[in-house]
Amino acid sequence: MYNLENKICSFNVNEYHLVTILMPYIYEKSDEEKKIITFFERDLKDIYEKVLNTNSLFWKNREVFDKIDWKKIESQKLAEKFNGVKDKDIVIIAGTQVFVERINRLALNFHINFTLVNCFELENLDNKLEEITKNYGKILCTKGIKEIKEFYLV
Fold this sequence. Notes:
Blueprint: E1 7-12, H1 15-31, E2 36-40, H2 45-53, H3 56-60, H4 62-66, H5 78-83, E3 90-95, H6 97-107, E4 115-121, H7 129-133, E5 138-141, E6 144-147, H8 148-151
Parallel strand pairs: 1-4, 1-5, 2-3, 3-4
Antiparallel strand pairs: 5-6
């Protein structure tokens, strides 16, 4: 089970933006030797390859990123992937709000302590950005993880 401290949201304008947000986070977490399990609504493999090849830090450390499943989640593999989630793992869910919420309902059934990173497509949020962020303690952006309260200071 996750709590607000390890529940992170992220917002992206397209798949390239999503991958460029995720790769530094994944690289950082690989140093902590945490397993990263992904649930992507769309296949990101081609975009990952393009982003990987444009950044020397990334392609020099390709083995870190090749461990990540960048493919679209197949519904018949949901149970298998969820069974792989262990204590202290990182679960990344990316897609439309409907997709993220559906996968989250499944994730709530697990009674383990994992970090949940929900990545939403901005295009489909219908001005619900503030409403969504109220359910999170942190936000992942291109500059890394920030506390949500930093964005709401006047």
